[in-house]
């Protein structure tokens, strides 16, 4: 019946699902060879001291230049890479490349690298981080690993043990996208993070939402009493920076300081302004 009089319907719907699936399969296949074909590269996003504007480090953000699709953003391909565990070699490439480049920076700034939960489930992430530090000569204290609560979701005990072993290497552990998950507070109780990154969604709505203001104020206060410095993500305006500076939020990251870029520059937009004003 469907074939007889529902041609348009069944053909219109099913092939579309087929297409989405085929599309994902194609991405998965291309991801498997992306590293060996040299299609991945890094962008760097500056992180600054909120009050002085001094650039203190950079977050490594992966980019994929697909041979026919152009640059595919990480929000599109990281989830696909996580499905097939292709994220494991990709994440290893990011870590090695970021540490190697950071070891050659003109200043010993912090280098922040995002880790996928899947990297905690496959292989020995502690051994990998250790060997990359040895291989690149980057001092462990300069490396900050950004994790989301996804790392802690299944097998909390195992994840906490891994995080403790990473900390024992001397690297810093930051909780990324704080406030967007389900049980962020219980994780703060369970593990001594070296830093909390407030998610950009709270910063974006600061000027229009009294709730966002209250939440940011509370998270910064919480960080202070837990001895966990705060980085605010997604800072785009001078007003947002002023508000965060007043709260003593330690660091900011966002378009106000600098956009992701293939090159690293320790020159701060604020320091420049101050020099111009003085001269
Ligand atoms: P994230 O770790 O929370 O990184 C911050 C994202 O917000 C970046 O997007 C950055 O460009 C963007 N952003 C920061 N400040 C601003 C701002 O002021 N305005 C606007 N409009 N955007 C801002 P990006 O590079 O597209 O990365 C998105 C997400 O992809 C990252 O979120 C992270 O979860 C993931 N990702 C990126 N690189 C890697 C990687 O090497 N490994 C893993 N596992 N995930 C990665
Ligand atoms: Mg991050
Ligand atoms: Mg984030
Ligand atoms: Mg994120």
UniProtKB/TrEMBL annotation:
It comes from the Bacteria. This is Diguanylate cyclase (GGDEF)-like protein. Residues 24-274 form the EAL domain.
């Amino acid at each position: 019946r469907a074939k007889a009089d529902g041609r348009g319907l069944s053909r219109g719907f099913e092939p579309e699902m087929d297409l989405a699936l085929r599309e994902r399969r194609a991405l998965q296949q291309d991801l498997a060879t992306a590293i060996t074909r040299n299609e991945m590269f890094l962008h760097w996003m500056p992180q600054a001291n909120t009050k002085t504007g001094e650039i203190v480090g950079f977050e490594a953000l992966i980019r994929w230049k697909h041979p026919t699709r152009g640059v595919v953003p990480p929000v599109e391909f990281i989830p696909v890479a996580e499905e097939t565990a292709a994220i494991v070699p990709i994440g290893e490439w990011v870590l090695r490349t970021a540490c190697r480049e950071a070891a050659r920076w003109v200043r010993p700034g912090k280098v922040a690298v995002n880790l996928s939960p899947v990297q905690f489930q496959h292989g020995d992430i502690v051994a990998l981080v250790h060997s990359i530090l040895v291989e690149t000569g980057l001092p462990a204290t300069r490396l900050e690993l950004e994790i989301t609560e996804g790392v802690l979701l299944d097998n909390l005990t195992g994840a906490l043990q891994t995080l403790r072993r990473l900390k024992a290497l001397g690297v810093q552990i930051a909780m990324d996208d704080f406030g967007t998950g389900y049980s962020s507070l219980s994780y703060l109780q369970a593990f001594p993070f070296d830093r909390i990154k407030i998610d950009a969604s709270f910063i974006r709505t600061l000027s229009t939402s009294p709730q966002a203001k209250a939440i940011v104020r509370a998270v910064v206060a919480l960080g202070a009493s837990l001895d966990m410095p705060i980085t605010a993500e997604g800072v785009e305006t001078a007003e947002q920076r002023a508000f965060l500076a007043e709260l003593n939020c330690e660091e900011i990251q966002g378009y106000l300081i600098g956009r992701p870029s293939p090159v690293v520059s320790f020159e701060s937009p604020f320091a420049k302004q101050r020099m111009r004003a003085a001269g």
